[in-house]
Structure formats: structure tokens, C-alpha cells
Amino acid sequence: MAEFIDNLKRNASNRPKRKATLLSHLKSHLGGTLSESELASKFELLRTRTGLVIDAKGAVTYPVF
After folding, report:
1. What superkingdom heads the lineage (predicted)?
2. Are 1 and 49 in contact, with CB atoms under 8 Å apart?
3. What mean pLDDT value characterizes the chain?
4. According to the 3-state scheme, what is the secondary structure of the chain?
């Protein structure tokens, strides 16, 4: 997870803008074999560790890293 977060920090101009895209990137980074519940759990871990915010329309707002 730390490697994924570091990648988000390094590529500020190329971060996923939508929750669905971020989930896709996360799943791919973790090997692509996660169930939906495992992916949701990893996503919540990512949200709590980074402080990113998802609005009602699914847009992702990143904190200042």
C-alpha cells in the first residue's frame, strides 16, 4: 500500500480523478485478483491513510502530500 501511495504522491498531474478509476488502479496494483469486499477494504485503508475525499459524484480530491 505504501508503494501505491508513493506513486500517487509522485505523479500529482496524472492521478485518477474519479473513484472508479482509482479503484481500478488500486486493484491492478494489488495484482488484479481481489474480491469486491477486499478491494473495498483496501480502498478504505487508502482513504484513512491519505485523507483523500470522494464527493457525491465520485470525484476524488487529494490532500496536499
Report:
1. Bacteria
2. yes
3. 94
4. CHHHHHHHHHCHHHCCCEHHHHHHHHHHHCCCCCCHHHHHHHHHHHHHHHCCEECCCCEEECCCC
